[in-house]
Amino acid sequence: MSSLIDNLETDHEGYLRRHTDWTPELANELAGADGIQLTEAHWEVLNFLQEYYENYEIAPAIRILTKQIGKRYGREKGNSKYLYELFPRGPAKQACRYAGMPKPTGCV
């Protein structure tokens, strides 16, 4: 069975080369491959990332992501612990991959 990502150009870590190739179905497929079922909480972060990327043409580092999520959704969501519960492999890195964005600057 063919995967959505198989037909798209990615870098060696699986990040899309063209943000415009992203779809919500792709996000669900990538998360599913990691054993994650995307919930409304995940989509809040992914939608925020999409909006951020549209405005700044860069993926936010974890510090910026945490601060901005807190401003938008409240302190209980604007912290590393909450974001790591949603994206255990690294909130900025894993969430940006699901959102079809390049790997954030400063992520190892």
Automatic annotation (TrEMBL):
Positions annotated as active site in the UniProt record: 107 (cysteine persulfide intermediate)
Any coiled-coil regions, as ranges: none
Enzyme class: transferase
Subcellular location(s) of the protein: Cytoplasm
Transferase among keywords: yes
One MF annotation (Gene Ontology) recorded for this entry: sulfur carrier activity
Keywords attached to this entry: Cytoplasm, Transferase
Highest taxon of source: Bacteria
PANTHER family, per database record: SULFURTRANSFERASE TUSE (PTHR37010:SF1)
Family: Belongs to the dsrC/tusE family.
Protein name, per record: Sulfurtransferase
Organism: Granulosicoccus antarcticus IMCC3135
